[in-house]
Specification:
The longest helix has about 35 residues. The chain has about 240 residues and is of the alpha+beta class. The chain folds into three domains: about 80 residues, Arc Repressor Mutant, subunit A, CATH 1.10.10; about 80 residues, Winged helix-like DNA-binding domain superfamily/Winged helix DNA-binding domain (Arc Repressor Mutant, subunit A, Orthogonal Bundle), CATH 1.10.10.10; about 60 residues. The protein is about 50% helix and about 15% strand.
């Protein structure tokens, strides 16, 4: 940290829009600026028109300098977006990304969405116990999930569900072909039983090997024809008389 402060409202708006994951509304930006009206920053009164003018100035700067992106209005807010000119190149990048295998964490989140859909991000995080922002964004980019609506709960969080691409990826005709939870339990039980059987075989093999070793070292006690006890060494075929 250098202790320097941004000198223009335009710089701050640019930083906010660059960092946001979702469209940022003018109202939200005004609220953010409202927290810095105590003399911390040399800001004049922030109005909707001031923000709109700043966004327009930024877009003019990007255009004049030949930048590949601009600020667009979407879903009631503003967000950075690339120019349509670069759509083909971005499509190639996304195609390459889609070829990558799903990570274990992505598969876990996808399973939650598949079985609980429609489901909100807080519900996914509650089940998995970790933040789901990155995973959800990744699954959206790969078209494995989509936004299907908003929940009728406080805050109206987004609801997520799986897509046709999800079915295609896993070779399913429709969601009814997903394994039932009971079937999954049975498969896991079978897999566990197979492991136990293998362990049992290994234990039996070890026991047999030990028995052979013990047989080699054994000295057997037998009764001879004269009624005396004798020790017989199986390897050497010799007998030792019992002195008693």
């Amino acid at each position: 940290m250098t202790g320097e402060q941004p000198t223009t409202i335009r710089q701050i708006i640019e930083a906010l829009l660059f960092a946001t994951d979702e469209p940022l509304s003018v109202k939200e930006m005004i609220a953010i600026f409202g927290e810095f009206q105590s003399g911390e920053l040399p800001l004049k009164r922030i109005t909707e028109q001031v923000i709109l003018d700043s966004i327009e100035q930024l877009n003019k700067e990007y255009e004049s300098s030949g930048r590949s992106m601009h600020i667009v209005r979407v879903a009631g807010g503003y967000q950075f977006a690339t120019l349509p000119l670069y759509a083909e190149w971005l499509g190639k990048m996304m195609k390459e990304k889609s070829k990558r295998k799903l990570s274990p964490s992505a598969l876990e989140s996808l399973a939650v969405i598949a079985y609980k859909q429609p489901v909100t991000k807080p519900e996914i995080e509650s089940i998995r116990g970790v933040n789901a922002d990155y995973i959800i964004r990744s699954l959206l980019e790969r078209n494995m999930i989509t936004i299907v609506g908003r929940a009728a709960t406080p805050g109206r969080p987004l609801l997520y569900g799986t897509t046709a691409e999800f079915l295609k990826h896993f070779g399913l005709n429709d969601l009814s072909e997903l394994p039932k939870p009971r079937e999954i339990d049975e498969l896991l039980a079978e897999a566990e039983f197979e492991v136990e059987k293998q362990l049992l075989k290994e234990q039996e093999a070890k026991a047999a090997a030990n028995e052979e070793t013990d047989d080699d070292d054994d000295v057997r006690i037998v009764v001879s024809e004269d009624g005396r006890l004798r020790e017989v060494d199986p390897d050497e075929g010799t007998e030792k008389s019992d002195p008693h």
